[in-house]
């Protein structure tokens, strides 16, 4: 019997029940002779059971004597008060206690069995050696000293007692022993069954047990009702996850879902509302789980309090047509400020600088041209407050002037016009003012709102008053920021310096940047090791609107990226990893939703579009204007058609950027996009539509607005070939000696002939040859001879664009 494994889970309260003793008593015995049980449900080890059996056997021995001799002793005398225990018992006690495994120390159950086996014998052999009084007295003492088991006193077979059926325990122990061999295979169920059987046939009625269990269940349900389990549910949750959070089985949850008409399996994801209904139905209290992203934890985007805001310097961008004097103006302003006496001296180009005008600072973006400005806007950086539009007095409004006007308008920033080169004798400012009115820039002197300053970037004439006007315009905007928070702003320029590593010019837009700050800019992290301004002065901090060049970034951030000073570098690195992954996913995944003619109608219907922005590019000014006014006439109550930019020439990258930032569609009329524009449009998902007839263009956009657009074909570009030589061959007409620059040229595809990206002709090929052989196709990098059907006006430098029309499957 040595080392019997307790396979049946025998708990404190069960022992108590089976012995008909209070649980407390059992617990007390265990506390005294073994380890204190934690609660009545604690499963007992065989060692503890042995102690209990020993103890209770002894205890019952004494009681049995009474019952056994009840017939003989009708009036059992109570033990005399303070009766001394029998000397034998006293004498026996130390001996018994000294026995290993006996008394206080646990005894192997084997010994116990042995002893019980001896019991009947001793009972038979020494039936009445002990008197009941003495015995009882000893027995009573045994309650407090259970270990003092005296063999000589064992006279009575306690198994005859009506209250404890010890056979049962022998039987049980035997089963336990037998069970050892089968324990591995024996299921829990089997033992439970045996357990139940034992109990049922034993001391307690199964009925009572069931009643108690029922009571327990009701109690638990009651408690659950009073203190429902609180489950946190996010916007979406898997059914399995919901079940585990509610501490329910998957089947219960699925059943409840089906009951509510939702056919979902464990692996399905359900929304918050559905999950909340299910959870409530299953007796849980629902709380919305708000998932805080690393970005939210790391970056403080809280609004500034009114009282924390302080005035900040305006950030100014200088725009205009090529050679109208942007750089000259910026240089003049910078150098005159240096000359005006501030320490430092040598200025360097860092992308932005600050000057002081009458004690008030103005920040200039030193990256002339709207390309940089638009590139930043395309990345979501709104950094400028005022635009200075430079127009050369001797030249007038040119295509890039118009682009600049439209870019500034789209960004919603005020424009101050600087009519430059006023020192030139041929300067004609009045003509320029006149031209400006065509672009809704009406001079103040003519009753409009546009500030116009005649200047000379060469002599400096009028520059001071231009700067004053900038301050005035800025004042109207009440530009303010909170210097007392961690810095946030935009990357103006960034590059890799051989000696210093990544160098970035940052414009602080809010807060104050300190040397030593950890910053995160796009996917770059770093600590500001050193800060300098455009004068090369070292700074330890930079407040709102201050541009600084910093070193210390881990990698080169992108111009236009947002930067934030953060408290936790480790978390910043984690965020960067996350952003990198998101960028990767974005590149691999579908491009973002932008306005396209295909989904225009549904966006109008959903109220997502109130203005349909269009950029018109055409081959001649007349067509551009005609397309513009025809399109604007399409406006109705729901949608206003706005041509935000209208110009002559091929579609360029700047057009695509403007379209991208203002959610516009580009309409090309007899023009084509250049390669950069095509790449950008694909990247930014900008819809470009090319037409040859105004009517087609108007009709298509009108149909799109009415949701009746049904393009049956789409154009698939095959490739381009550049015309390098032109031959006249008798009988075959003009043949172009071409070089396939990209893609391929196919004999039976359609072509259009482009000259400076303007469509000269559209048609089909008459011939495609390599040397003297006809070809079906000629791939990139090969030369070929191309003849165009019924067309001979081909010139060197022309580009032949080859395409197919493919039916769109619906
Ligand atoms: N006479 C005169 N010439 C000027 C003035 N401003 C600029 N220029 C000249 O105009 C030419 C072009 O000036 P830039 O400042 O380079 O013009 P820009 O607009 O920056 O040109 P890009 O950088 O090519 O876009 C230069 O030769 C300047 O010297 C001016 O006020 N008066």
Automatic annotation (TrEMBL):
Composition bias, Low complexity: 80-96, 105-141
Top-level lineage group: Bacteria
Classification lineage: Bacteria, Bacillati, Bacillota, Clostridia, Eubacteriales
Similarity field: Belongs to the TRAFAC class translation factor GTPase superfamily. Classic translation factor GTPase family. IF-2 subfamily.
Keywords: Cytoplasm, GTP-binding, Initiation factor, Nucleotide-binding, Protein biosynthesis
Region (Disordered): 73-161, 178-216
GO cellular component: cytosol
GO molecular function (one): GTP binding
Annotated Tr-type G domain residues: 311-480
Protein name: Translation initiation factor IF-2
Subcellular location: Cytoplasm
This protein's record includes keyword Nucleotide-binding: yes
Amino-acid positions noted as binding GTP in the UniProt annotation, renumbered to this chain: 320-327, 366-370, 420-423
Biased composition (Basic and acidic residues): 150-160
Task of the protein: One of the essential components for the initiation of protein synthesis. Protects formylmethionyl-tRNA from spontaneous hydrolysis and promotes its binding to the 30S ribosomal subunits. Also involved in the hydrolysis of GTP during the formation of the 70S ribosomal complex.
NCBIfam families, alphabetized: IF-2, small_GTP
Residue span of region G-domain: 314-462
HAMAP family: IF_2_B
SUPFAM superfamilies membership: Initiation factor IF2/eIF5b, domain 3, P-loop containing nucleoside triphosphate hydrolases, Translation proteins
């Amino acid at each position: 019997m040595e080392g019997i494994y307790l396979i049946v889970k025998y708990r404190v309260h069960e022992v108590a029940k089976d012995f008909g003793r209070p649980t407390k008593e059992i617990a007390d015995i265990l506390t005294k002779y073994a380890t204190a049980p934690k609660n009545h449900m604690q499963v007992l080890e065989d060692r503890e059971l042995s102690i209990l059996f020993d103890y209770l056997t002894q205890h019952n021995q004494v009681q049995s004597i009474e019952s056994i001799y009840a017939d003989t002793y009708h009036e059992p005398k109570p033990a005399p008060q303070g009766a001394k225990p029998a000397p034998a018992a006293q004498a026996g006690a130390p001996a018994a206690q000294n026995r290993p495994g006996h008394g206080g120390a646990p005894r192997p159950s084997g010994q116990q069995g042995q002893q019980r086996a001896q019991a009947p014998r001793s009972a038979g052999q020494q039936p009445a050696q002990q008197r009941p009084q003495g015995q009882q007295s000893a027995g009573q003492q045994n309650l407090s000293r259970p270990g003092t088991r005296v063999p000589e006193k064992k006279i009575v077979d306690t198994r005859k007692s009506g209250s404890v059926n010890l056979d049962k325990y022998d039987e049980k122990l035997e089963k336990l022993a037998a069970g050892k061999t089968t324990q591995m295979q024996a299921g829990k169920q089997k033992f439970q069954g045996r357990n139940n059987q034992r109990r049922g046939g034993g001391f307690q009625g199964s009925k009572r047990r069931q009643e108690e269990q029922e009571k327990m269940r009701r109690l638990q349900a009651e408690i659950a009702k009073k203190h429902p389990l609180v489950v946190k549910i996010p916007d979406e949750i898997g059914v399995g996850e919901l079940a585990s959070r509610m501490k329910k089985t998957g089947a219960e949850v699925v059943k409840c879902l089906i009951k509510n008409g939702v056919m979902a399996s464990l692996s399905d994801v359900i929304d918050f509302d559905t999950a909340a209904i299910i959870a409530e139905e299953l007796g849980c209290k629902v709380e919305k789980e708000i998932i805080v992203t690393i970005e939210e934890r790391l970056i403080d985007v809280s609004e500034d309090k009114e009282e924390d805001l302080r005035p900040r310097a305006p950030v100014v961008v200088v725009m205009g047509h090529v050679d109208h004097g942007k750089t000259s103006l910026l240089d003049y302003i910078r150098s005159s400020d240096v000359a005006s006496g501030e320490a430092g001296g040598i200025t360097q180009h860092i992308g932005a600088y600050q000057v002081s005008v009458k004690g008030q600072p103005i920040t200039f973006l030193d990256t002339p041209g709207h390309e940089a400005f638009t590139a930043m806007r395309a990345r979501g950086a709104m950094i400028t407050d005022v635009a200075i539009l430079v127009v050369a007095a001797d030249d007038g409004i040119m295509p890039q002037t118009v682009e600049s006007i439209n870019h500034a308008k789209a960004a919603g920033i005020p424009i101050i016009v600087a009519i430059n080169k006023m020192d030139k004798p041929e300067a004609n400012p009045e003509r320029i003012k006149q031209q400006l009115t065509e672009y809704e820039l009406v001079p103040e002197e003519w009753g409009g709102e546009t500030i116009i300053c005649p200047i000379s970037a060469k002599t400096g004439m009028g520059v001071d008053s231009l700067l004053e006007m900038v301050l005035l315009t800025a004042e109207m905007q009440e530009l303010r920021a909170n210097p007392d928070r961690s810095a946030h702003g935009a990357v103006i320029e960034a590059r890799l310096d051989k000696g210093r590593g990544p160098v970035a010019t940052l414009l602080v837009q809010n807060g104050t940047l300190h040397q030593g700050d950890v910053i995160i800019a796009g996917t770059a992290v770093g600590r500001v090791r050193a800060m300098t301004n455009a004068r090369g002065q070292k700074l330890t901090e930079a407040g709102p609107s201050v541009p600084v060049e910093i070193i210390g970034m881990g990698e080169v951030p992108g111009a236009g990226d947002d930067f934030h000073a953060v408290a936790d570098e480790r978390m910043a690195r984690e965020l960067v990893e996350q952003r990198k992954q998101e960028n990767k996913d974005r590149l691999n995944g579908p491009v973002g939703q932008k306005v396209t003619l295909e989904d225009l109608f549904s966006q109008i219907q959903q109220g997502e579009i109130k203005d349909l922005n269009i950029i018109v590019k055409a081959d001649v000014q007349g067509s551009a204007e005609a397309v513009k006014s025809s399109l604007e006439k399409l406006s109705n109550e729901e949608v206003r058609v706005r041509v935000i930019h209208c110009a002559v020439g091929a579609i360029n990258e700047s057009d695509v950027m403007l379209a991208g930032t203002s959610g516009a569609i580009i309409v090309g009329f007899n023009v084509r996009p250049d390669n950069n524009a095509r790449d950008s449009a694909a990247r930014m998902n900008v819809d470009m539509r090319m037409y040859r007839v105004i009517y087609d263009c108007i009709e298509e956009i009108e149909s799109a607005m009415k949701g009746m657009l049904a393009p049956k074909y789409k154009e698939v570009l095959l490739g381009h070939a550049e015309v390098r030589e032109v031959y006249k061959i008798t009988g075959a007409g003009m043949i172009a000696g071409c070089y396939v620059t990209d893609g391929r040229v196919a004999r039976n595809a359609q072509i259009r002939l482009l000259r400076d990206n303007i469509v000269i002709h559209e048609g089909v090929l008459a011939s495609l040859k390599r040397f003297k052989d006809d070809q079906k196709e000629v791939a990139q990098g090969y030369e070929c001879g191309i003849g165009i059907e019924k067309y001979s006006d081909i010139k060197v430098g022309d580009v032949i664009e080859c395409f197919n029309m493919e039916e769109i499957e619906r």
